[in-house]
Amino acid sequence: MKSNPKIGLALSGGGVRGISHLGVLKALNEADIYPTRLSGSSAGAIAGTMYCSGYKPEEILRIIVDTNYFKFIRPAISLKGILTMSQVEKLLKLYIKTDDFSSLQIPMTVAATDIQKGKVVYFSEGEIIKPVLASSCIPGMFEPIEYEDKFLIDGGVLNNLPVEPLDGVCDTIIGVNCNHLPEESNVKNMRVLIERSVIMSMNYNVYSRQSKCDYFIEAPGLGKYGVLDIRKAPQIFKAGYDTAMEYMEKNPSILDLVSGSKSLTA
User: Fold this and answer.
1) CB-CB contact of 14 with 202 (8 Å)
2) Tens of pLDDT along 199-231?
3) For residue 142, what are the β-bridge partners?
4) Active-site annotation, residues
5) How many CB atoms lie within 10 A of CB 237?
């Protein structure tokens, strides 16, 4: 067993499905496994940043449910997108007291996509909130975020499992995907066709990075939940928790990651 291993945790995007990451974190923490560095795209960036700010997984779930997080999404009068993140920004400011990566208790990297240059951009210093908002801007649904002379959208477009910022820095990398698709015998309408196609595309760039992970946790069937279906938050949280508990039972070597000193979020 390593003493105080450097554990990296990469969290995928997936809208409300990202709540499953909180269940995974709860299970890992109960096993005395505490990540020392996180990275995330979209919903993974939100969950990871809140966790790195010192909130426990259950607290983050309560905040999301009690505030009805997604009600803060408002229509945008713009040709760039139909929704705006301005109200979400106000909400994040309530819970992230100091808008700087240096204030986090655990190092965090946020992935976003530079729409003009067509490449992934990673943020781990300076302001936190703008990069997190940018990482969550689903193209066509949200207005891009203008930040540091860049127009930024959802990090998951090009990298929905940002393991690269953890590679070579951490002894062990745990990847967590929240978009597993159940089999579908009948794609009954255009909405289902589009949603399923988008998730398949996201998962392709996740699975292409799976080999970079020492451990890979994926709750089955989460792709059936809508990206904004906040009503299913408790079920999604439980799915992440149950899957992580089962994964640790089937892969006992992960328990070698138990650290002698707990994270500040404990």
Assistant:
1) yes
2) 888 888 999 999 999 999 999 999 888 877 888
3) 83, 139
4) 42, 154
5) 23
